[in-house]
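Page 42, continued from yesterday. The earlier attempt failed because a stray header line got pasted into the input along with the sequence. Redoing it now with the clean sequence only.
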Amino acid sequence: MNEFYNKLHEFTLSELEQFHKEILNINEAIITKEITLKNGLTIRISKWLGMDAFVKFNHKTDISSYTFDELITLNYIPEKYQNEEFLEVHSRNLAFGNMV
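This time it went through. Structure tokens are written below.
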């Protein structure tokens, strides 16, 4: 794992910790936070019902999503986008609702 992926991992853990704080008093069936970075990578943190929160990654133009380990195995992020400047947040969204 190179320096970029190490920083992405640290950033994601920080966002996961923040997510747990944000949802502490929210009693909804589905809660999702999406963080889009400047390189188009989206980090999706979700919690469904009584399950633990889980994290998936995808690019805004990709319909598939991946775990962190899969990102590394696939070398998903092209090297030219593995700069620290691309770890800056473009947008954050928090959504929640009930299953119907």
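Notes: The chain has a mean pLDDT of 90.
Reminder to self: strip header lines before submitting.
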